[in-house]
Every structure is written in structure tokens, then in C-alpha cells.
Amino acid sequence: MSHHGSSGTREGSLKFALWFCCVDLVLMGSAAMMSNSVTIMGDVLKEATDTLSVLAAFLTIRAVRRSASHQFSYGIGKLENLVSIIIGVIMMACGIFVTIRAIHHFSHPIMPEGTQAGIALFALYACIGYWIWARNKRIVAQQPSAIMESQARLWFSKASFDVVMGSGLLLALLFRQSEWSWYIDPIASLVGVLFMFHAAWGMASSSVGDLLDATIEESVQLKIMSGLVVHIDSYERIHKVRARRSGPNVYVEIFLEFNPNELMGVVQTKIDALRADLESQIPGTDVSIRPTASQII
Q: Would strands 285-291 and 249-257 be described as parallel, antiparallel, or unpaired?
């Protein structure tokens, strides 16, 4: 079974996101040079880290798609989980950095100037970020993937962060003559940090489990058993079913006992029908059915 199509979709989505990050970095860097806003400068450094994160995800997807099947028989899908954890760690580091800058801004408040360009960019990037988030969620719904799930969380966090930052700068601009408005920047930054920490935790917690040889989720197990029930007349007995996840793919081994009086050609026809049915019911599944004559212990 080929996953080339889904990999191509994920790679195209990440390529667009990488292009957007690079443009974002250049434009926001220009806005930071025209402004004395610590918030915008901190966002530039955060965007640089996000760009590296998206680049790592993009290169990982390409590596998974191009990996030689004879070298990695089950693919290198777990690399996706490792990259997702790294992205989560990077986002935690970004959150800590923004927190430090916010504390410094509390201690030495200044009136932000030249923030108009930054406000406009924050508004634009928030719209684009939410669009990319929605696109990645659709891809995950069609083809489960830890790395695309982490990217969806990343872009939701980025868009929400841009909304908070842009709103804070806009409010500070409207009331810039009042000293209390100088504290809006650090407050908005800390709210944005909460989004970043939440997304980072979600990435790490959702990826660690797939690195372990644990049982797949119950919903997938139920689909497998339902498929076996539908084809119950094709075999004599179920001896064993075992499954594991590697990145976006699920590998299932089913040990079935067939009628010993049937020709192998007939048995193979039943195996092909059962395998095709299960793989169509569970996207990203590679099913292997092993004819078994005796009970497996």
C-alpha cells in the first residue's frame, strides 16, 4: 500500500508554511527595526525559532517519503514523533525567553513607538495562521500524523499569539499617553506565553506515547475486530491479533486458521478481500494476515 499521496499533501502544506515563515521573519524583522517595541523584537526571535521548527518538520517528511524500503521495512515514522517532541521543547524555550523579556519590560517600562507596521503584520499573520491551522487539521483527519498534529498546534498557537500581541500593541497605541498603557506589552506577552506552553505540552504528550511499543488506541482495535466479524465466514478461528503504530501508519498482524480442506488459491482470495476491507476502513493501515494451523502461545 502506498502513502505517497498523503506524504505529498503533508509535504506541500509544510512547504507553504516554510515559505510563509521566511516571509514573516523578513517583514517582522523590518518592523522591529522601525520600532522600539520589545514585544515585536521578541516575536522576531520567536519567529526565527518557529521557522527552524517548520524546516525540521519539512525535512523529516521528505526523509520519511524517500526512505529506502529495504533499509527501513516499517518506514521511519517514529522520526516524526521525535521531531514533534523537539518542536515542543523549542516552543518551551521560546516561552521562557518571552517571559524573561516581559519581566524586564515590567521593570523598565517604556512607551512603544513605531508599532503600526507590527500591528498590521500581527493582524495579517493571525488570519493566515488560523487558515494554515485549519488546513493541517483537515490533513490530520484524512491521514493521522504526529508531525502534522504538532504543526496544527504550532500554527494555532502562533495565530493566537499574534492576536494577543496585535491587540496589546493596538491598545497601547490608542492610550500611549497614559503610563499604565506601557505595561500592556508585557501583560500581552505573558498571555501569549500561556498559548505557547499549552501547545508545547500538547506536542510532547501526544508524541511520547507513540515512541513506546504500546497498544494502539481502542477505536482502531474496534474497527479491526468489526472487520473480522464481517468476514467471519472466511476463516475458522482467530488465533492472535497484534498491532503497532509507527508515525502515521498502523501495522496489523492477524493470525487466522482457515479450513484445511480448502485450496491455497481460495484461501488467498479470502485473505486479499479481508486485507483490502480492513485497509479501506482504517486509513494508513498495513495489514498482514498469516494463515495458522495451530494455536499460537
A: parallel
